[in-house]
Amino acid sequence: MTTVDMDRQRYIVAAARRSEREQRLVKLLSRVALYGLLIAVSLWYMAPLFWMFMSSFMPLEQVGIFPPEWIPRRWQFHNYTDALDFWDFGNSLKNTLFITILSLIGDIASSTIVAYGFARFRFPFRDALFLILLATLMLPFAVRLIPVYIAYNEIGWVNTFWPLIAPNYFGSAFYIFICRQFFLGIPQDLLDAAKIDGASEFRIFMQVIAPLAKPAIVVIAILSFQNSWNDFLGPLIYLQDAKLHTLAIGLYKFQSLPGQGGQYHLQMAASVMMVLPVLIVFFMFQKQFIQGANLSGMKG
Amino acid sequence: MATAFGSQLRALRGTRRERWRDLSPMRKREARFGLLFITPWIIGVLLFNLFPFVASFALSFTRYNVVEAPIWVGLRNYNNILTDDPLFWKSLGNTSVYVFGSVAIRIILGFALALLLNARVRLLGLWRTLFYVPSVVPIVALSIVWLYVLNARAGLLNWFLTLFGLPRVRWFADPDYAMLAFLIMSTTWVGVTMVIFLAGLQGIPEEYYDAAKIDGAGWGQRLRRVTIPLMTPTIYLNVLINIIAAFQVFTQIFIMTGGGPRDATRTYVLHLFDHAFQFLPPEMGYSSALAWILFMIIFAFTAVIVATSRRWVFYQGQE
Predict the structure, then answer these.
(1) Which of A177, B40, B77, B180 makes the best surface tag, with the fewest CB within 10 Å?
(2) Does the ipTM surpass 0.95?
(3) Distance CA B55, CA A146 (A)
């Protein structure tokens, strides 16, 4: 081998090593960039919530300063009791729980029953009816708002909780859809076995189907809870009497109360009180929340 | 859902129409039980969908203040809306800005974040939770917090801008920036879209990428030729859902600005709500006409998207 060849070979090996090192560097840098980006996005999402929590303990004069401060100079736990002086939280909570629980029972009962009908029986026009069910999901609420309000007004249900509860006893299209998908996955043999044992359709539903449908029911329960707890427009229209206010309306009134305009620290304390139960439920059932979101995005 | 809708349509075409009298006694019994089980929904769809749908159409040709009987006015409501209601056009314009802006934000950012999380990151569950949590916060509480974030004097967003040497913005005090402020706030719900896209991305078989790599496709090409085509059904559905929802944006705007400053954030449903529930006497007929115009606009958008979907939505297992 000539010296020229040896030099060439050494050069190639060195170049290869260098490119390998470069590649590793690029890979490292892209990982750093990736995690940097993830942290930046997390900060964007967490900053408002973190600030809400921290400022709910701050003295008022600290809330409005610029640049913002993140840690309370004095931890004013009495912000929460002060907020309660302006806002009958206990009563709002009671009203919200009443609506939420009754709606939840209705949603679960009616949606599973209807979904079972669609999933397990053959009858004329079944597929056409299910198509209508899917179509109602796309009907804008704005079109339904006014006649429904007028009808409730006619029967004297304005200023009662019933307009917010009753509709949930007739099966919600989306929950029916979730449940039907689930029921279609239950093996037919199981039902046939029950039938041979002489069980009636209703006993099969209550004793075989309902227990098996638990995962779907949990998803529906969570979506229904979230819906009632967070609902704003419904209570805004139907519950004018202050005694009937829900948490959402109570918090809104508290925020827009004349003379309350500047009380940011108390507003934040009140907001935390409304948000906390939702966050607790979220962290308890995180998997089902994510499942619920997925189902709403990929129905079918 | 749109895909479910499509497969439902196809199933419908495939089935032979069954007539009640042709059914055997056993099939009749089965059909009776089926109908019995779905009865609650049938009543519900008549009471809460069909009745209001028809009734609001009828009301849109009347003047109605709830107290007195409705008076037939023909097309006058529609005529007034189109020729004599500057706030109708203003609110439609604002709503369009919100629809295009917020849907673009949700789809593009949602997809980008899902891609990030799909890049074999550590602590996937943690990141997903952090991005998702704000979207479960009740909207009233979120609005109160964002009123502070967007505060002109001491808000967090202005502080953030000054960190980069940018000038402060007056957000809700400035008609030119108020709608933009709501678009920035709408990033809150990107987490929902991200979760949906992420589940879709995780469902793409690894072999497709391996095959593309062997063919020498780089990252960009794999994204363009494998990932995006396989994700089009999910993208399609999310565009549809989000457009319908965005056209009806209401709560945060009602709470945070009430439509101001100078009607810069007055959106369509806010306008409709004012006529029905804020004005005295209430104008239920006028408001119903507004609702029907909105319905027709949303329907037209949906129809165009559904009609063009055949060209860009790719279903696996079909030619």
Answers:
(1) B180
(2) no
(3) 9
